Amino acid sequence: MISSNTIDVMNYQISNMTRKKAIEVLADSETRTAFFLNAHCVNVASKDPVYRWALAKADRLLPDGIGMKIAARAGGVRLADNLNGTDLFVPLIRDAAARGRSIFFFGAAPGVAEAAAAKAVELAPGLRVAGCRDGYFTSGEEAGIVTTINRSGADIVLVALGVPRQEIWIARNRHRLAAGLVMGVGAQFDFWSGRVRRAPAIVRRMSCEWVWRLGLEPRRLARRYLIGNPAFLARVARHAIGGAVAAEPGRPLKRVLDLVLAGSAVLALSPALLAIAAAIRATSPGPVLFRQERVGEGGRRFTMLKFRSMCVDAERRLDDLRRVNTRDGVCLKAAVDPRITPVGRFLRRFSLDELPQLFNVLRGEMSIVGPRPALPREVAAYPSAAMERLVPRPGLTGVWQVSGRADVGFDKMVGMDVAYGRSRSLLLDVALIGLTVRAVFGGRGAY
Question: What is the pTM of this model?
Answer without folding.
Answer: 0.59
